[in-house]
Amino acid sequence: MTPTSPNASNVTADQQAEIDAQRSDPQPTLRATAPGIEKHLYSAIPVLDHGFVRVIDYMGDDNAICQAARVSYGRGTKSVQNDEGLIRYLMRHWHSTPFEMCEIKLHVKLPVFVARQWIRHRTANVNEYSARYSILDREFYIPAADSLNAQSTVNNQGRGEALSGEEAERVLRYLRDDAMRAYDHYEEMISQDGQQGLARELARMNLPANIYTQWYWKVDLHNLLHFLRLRADAHAQYEIRVYADAICRVVADWVPFAYAAFADYRMGGATLSGTALECVRRMLKGEEVTQETSGMSKGEWREFKGVMG
Ligand SMILES: Cc1cc2nc3c(=O)[nH]c(=O)nc-3n(C[C@H](O)[C@H](O)[C@H](O)COP(=O)(O)OP(=O)(O)OC[C@H]3O[C@@H](n4cnc5c(N)ncnc54)[C@H](O)[C@@H]3O)c2cc1C
C-alpha cells in the first residue's frame, strides 16, 4: 500500500502505523478517564468514501459535569440524588456551563464542501491542513449511487428521489472525470519539472469542492451538543450528517448520562411557541383545533402537526 492509498478505515498506511503506535503505548495517569471513549482513542471511524473521524484527546466525563454543577449548587444538589438525575436536570433547565467542563479533540478528514458548513460553528478551535504549504491528495468524494439524488420539489434546501439509469451514470461520470482532470492540471501546474511551477496556494483554486481536506477540531461538550443538534438532524445535509452521527456514537460512549439527556431533551424533544402550547391545552380540553382557529401560519401548523404526530 502506498502512503496515500486508504484502507478500510479510510486512513493511509502511515496514519495506521501512527495509530497502532499510539494505541500500543498506554500511559498511567491520575486524571479521570472515561472507559467508553478510551476504546475510540486515535482509531479512525470511516465516514463517506475517504473521510474519517478520530478522537485525539478528551477531558472530563459525566462526573466532571456533576462536579462543576455541585460547585455552584452545593447543598442544593442534595435534592437531585444521583449523577444521572443531576445531568438531566441541567439539560432540562439549559444550565449549560457544567457541560463546558468536558472537551474533545477530533481529527477529521472531510470534503471541502462539508468543511464549509462545519466551519460555521464558531465555538470550536480549528487547525486545517495547509494547501499553501502541502500538496493535496488525489481524493474526491464521489457519492454512492443511493446518495445521488434529484433536487427536492418540496424543499429548496434538500434532495428528493435517487437518480437512476443513464442520468445517474452520466452524473457519476462527470463527477469522476471532472475531478481527475482538475487534479491532473493541478499536478501539472505545480510541477517544477522543466518549468518554474505555479505556487501551491494558487494552483489549488482549480480543485473542486469535493476534494478532501483534514483538520483538528477541538470543542467543549456544550458546543459539541449544539453542533450535533443541528447536524445530526434530518434537515442537515446527508454528507455532514454522517459525520455528526459518527460523533454521536463517540459521545454516547464518552458521557453516557449527558448523551442520554441530550438525546431525550434535544434530539427527541421539541420546542413549542406560546401559541402552540395554548393549542395543546385547548386540545386536551377536548376542543377541535384547526389551522384556521390555531392562530398559526400554515407552515407553523404543518410543523406543529409533525411534532404532535
Ligand atoms: C439545516 C441548516 C441550514 C443552514 N442554512 C444556511 C444558509 O442557507 N446560509 C448560511 O449562511 N448558513 C446556513 N446555516 C448555518 C447556520 O446559520 C449557522 O451559522 C450554523 O448552524 C452555526 O450555528 P451557530 O452560530 O449557532 O453555532 P456556533 O458558531 O458554534 O455558535 C454557538 C452559539 O454561540 C453564539 N455565538 C457564537 N458566535 C457568536 C457571535 N459572533 N455573535 C453572537 N453570538 C455568537 C450563538 O448563540 C450561537 O448560537 C445552516 C445551518 C443548518 C443546520
From TrEMBL:
<protein>
    <recommendedName>
        <fullName>Flavin-dependent thymidylate synthase</fullName>
        <ecNumber>2.1.1.148</ecNumber>
    </recommendedName>
</protein>
<keyword id="KW-0285">Flavoprotein</keyword>
<feature type="binding site">
    <location>
        <begin position="120"/>
        <end position="122"/>
    </location>
    <ligand>
        <name>FAD</name>
    </ligand>
</feature>
<keyword id="KW-0489">Methyltransferase</keyword>
<comment type="pathway">
    <text>Pyrimidine metabolism; dTTP biosynthesis.</text>
</comment>
<dbReference type="GO" id="GO:0070402">
    <property type="term" value="F:NADPH binding"/>
</dbReference>
<feature type="active site" description="Involved in ionization of N3 of dUMP, leading to its activation">
    <location>
        <position position="231"/>
    </location>
</feature>
<comment type="function">
    <text>Catalyzes the reductive methylation of 2'-deoxyuridine-5'-monophosphate (dUMP) to 2'-deoxythymidine-5'-monophosphate (dTMP) while utilizing 5,10-methylenetetrahydrofolate (mTHF) as the methyl donor, and NADPH and FADH(2) as the reductant.</text>
</comment>
<feature type="binding site">
    <location>
        <position position="226"/>
    </location>
    <ligand>
        <name>FAD</name>
    </ligand>
</feature>
<feature type="binding site">
    <location>
        <position position="128"/>
    </location>
    <ligand>
        <name>FAD</name>
    </ligand>
</feature>
<keyword id="KW-0274">FAD</keyword>
<keyword id="KW-0808">Transferase</keyword>
<feature type="binding site">
    <location>
        <position position="97"/>
    </location>
    <ligand>
        <name>FAD</name>
    </ligand>
</feature>
<dbReference type="GO" id="GO:0050660">
    <property type="term" value="F:flavin adenine dinucleotide binding"/>
</dbReference>
<feature type="binding site">
    <location>
        <begin position="117"/>
        <end position="120"/>
    </location>
    <ligand>
        <name>dUMP</name>
    </ligand>
</feature>
<dbReference type="Pfam" id="PF02511">
    <property type="entry name" value="Thy1"/>
</dbReference>
<feature type="binding site">
    <location>
        <position position="231"/>
    </location>
    <ligand>
        <name>dUMP</name>
    </ligand>
</feature>
<dbReference type="GO" id="GO:0032259">
    <property type="term" value="P:methylation"/>
</dbReference>
<comment type="similarity">
    <text>Belongs to the thymidylate synthase ThyX family.</text>
</comment>
<feature type="binding site">
    <location>
        <begin position="220"/>
        <end position="222"/>
    </location>
    <ligand>
        <name>FAD</name>
    </ligand>
</feature>
<feature type="compositionally biased region" description="Polar residues">
    <location>
        <begin position="1"/>
        <end position="15"/>
    </location>
</feature>
<dbReference type="GO" id="GO:0050797">
    <property type="term" value="F:thymidylate synthase (FAD) activity"/>
</dbReference>
<comment type="subunit">
    <text>Homotetramer.</text>
</comment>
<dbReference type="InterPro" id="IPR003669">
    <property type="entry name" value="Thymidylate_synthase_ThyX"/>
</dbReference>
<feature type="binding site" description="in other chain">
    <location>
        <position position="204"/>
    </location>
    <ligand>
        <name>dUMP</name>
    </ligand>
</feature>
<dbReference type="GO" id="GO:0006235">
    <property type="term" value="P:dTTP biosynthetic process"/>
</dbReference>
<dbReference type="InterPro" id="IPR036098">
    <property type="entry name" value="Thymidylate_synthase_ThyX_sf"/>
</dbReference>
<dbReference type="GO" id="GO:0004799">
    <property type="term" value="F:thymidylate synthase activity"/>
</dbReference>
<dbReference type="GO" id="GO:0006231">
    <property type="term" value="P:dTMP biosynthetic process"/>
</dbReference>
<feature type="binding site" description="in other chain">
    <location>
        <begin position="128"/>
        <end position="132"/>
    </location>
    <ligand>
        <name>dUMP</name>
    </ligand>
</feature>
<keyword id="KW-0521">NADP</keyword>
<feature type="region of interest" description="Disordered">
    <location>
        <begin position="1"/>
        <end position="29"/>
    </location>
</feature>
<keyword id="KW-0545">Nucleotide biosynthesis</keyword>
